[in-house]
């Protein structure tokens, strides 16, 4: 199984399992986070051989980037792939702004917070309503040509917006909401992305913890806004099948689900988040889980109703 992937049409290479860092400094998203935990879990990821660190301005309005920037000073920068995202305009209530001037400044601000002279992947985090998407990407392409970013991404774009952004074949990667219980991207985006050599990275791969296998039918109230009672029952039944496969490999349900994404050829990399270093260690172990093709298809079929 190929554990290293190339991002889009670029020379950026990464392992198939990265680290999502919305819980690193993301005080605005998760109350009660401690900065020291953020420092420790980024260090743990890098020490464990994780290459891709995925962050964003909105994770703590720059704090996540600052913590990562501090940590990477003690590591070989050339062996780390940093992905960050920008679009939220602090001068306008953090509403999305894709104007060329704003995005260029967003990259400069991220470079300062990350304490580096280049960003491996820079995503437009959310689309705005006004800016033609090919013009927004063209501005980032100027920075790519200047060596300030190595790959251009978009996130939370519809297929039509992705196509507009990629009018000049300058989009390298798409990050979007996707999991085994939220599979719309398979039919909406994947064919176009494959045809245009654009990598795909899912966020919320463990569906906010639902796919870890730790919940029972008594926990439905936590998920009732997202799933009907029938859907929740279907998910628990599917996870029972995953538990059997996980037991055969001597690993957890979460590690088995992550291994499914790692094996999926349509997925460039998977970036589970973590709240502490122990969770990072557990996620990294998913790289050692080698699902058979039959097990891969069994998991796929268990969640087929969500396609």
TrEMBL record:
Keywords: Oxidoreductase. It comes from the Bacteria. Residues 16-302 form the NADP-dependent oxidoreductase domain. The keyword Oxidoreductase applies. Signal peptide: none annotated. The keyword Oxidoreductase applies. PANTHER family: NAD(P)-LINKED OXIDOREDUCTASE SUPERFAMILY PROTEIN, NADH-SPECIFIC METHYLGLYOXAL REDUCTASE-RELATED. This is Aldo/keto reductase.
